[in-house]
């Protein structure tokens, strides 16, 4: 009785004090904190096949990165085995694990599509990615599949998710559905809503989320993501879009090698990719300082090979291809 009375008085006192303070206290007690990622964190990303875990000759390479970005399904026996994630997280320096999945494309080979998934919910094929089709990300049936992937990532121990292909508004705004040709459109507004929904669910499950590319909507979603992942902002001359963001959150940045998709030939001078490059033209230059981006040089296959800005090269061992 007395305890209840005291608790009531305390609760009333807090409410009378400030509602904001009360709700903050309530939230931080309700769930484990969402992981955060420091600016300039180092990383490795591998989306081709499965990592060899444990490697045949440990320690795993690179053995010092802060963050691993790996495929949610390929490294977990389709979501059934968390041992690779646990292994990485338990390395001596305790790196974080970011789990990648495609949020905006229908990948034919994935096994988590509901049996009754409407074929009008995906349309045109992604340019350069046969077997992947742009999804109607504004549809709740599509979002439910992606929400389940976020829940799965949390259950498997991923610290964060890296949902890809959230920028279909740029490549294929108008999409005829794949069965009857019913048209859906992809817009920036729809991507913003989708990312906000995914971010809320990720945070409710105590994991972080990143924004992959989609620079056009960065200002509208930067407050709900913990990091960004970028491909080719130097080649595309758009790294300065991250100037504000990278003051407080990391930008995991990839520049690709030219040449073959499986090239393993390092760049000998990484100044342009890592330090300073001209975002303007030769006659009207605009040099941008990119030293605060977390840059990896990779090949297009995103295999185990990585070159860091100091030109050191590392090779993560992958499981043999089946
Ligand atoms: C989508 O439609 C195209 C053209 O009819 C067809 O070739 C392709 O197999 C379809 N893809 C899927 C995943 O159903
Ligand atoms: C669909 O997109 C609109 C913005 O265009 C947004 O207001 C709405 O919440 C979205 N619906 C879903 C299910 O994401
Ligand atoms: C590397 O490239 C930058 C930019 O092109 C140049 O200024 C610098 O002198 C080069 N460094 C070396 C060691 O060649
Ligand atoms: C990079 O980050 C440091 C703090 O770590 C800051 O002092 C510096 O201004 C940043 N550089 C740029 C170009 O944003």
Automatic annotation (TrEMBL):
InterPro entries recorded: Aldolase_TIM, GH, GH114_TIM-barrel
SUPFAM superfamilies: (Trans)glycosidases (SSF51445)
Class of the enzyme per the UniProt entry, highest EC level: hydrolase
Gene3D superfamilies the record matches: Aldolase class I
Entry EC no(s): 3.2.1.22
Sorted UniProt keywords: Signal
Listed GO MF terms: alpha-galactosidase activity
Signal peptide (residue range): 1-21
Reaction catalysis annotation: Hydrolysis of terminal, non-reducing alpha-D-galactose residues in alpha-D-galactosides, including galactose oligosaccharides, galactomannans and galactolipids
Ranges for domain Glycoside-hydrolase family GH114 TIM-barrel: 42-268
Protein name: alpha-galactosidase
Source species: Coniochaeta ligniaria NRRL 30616
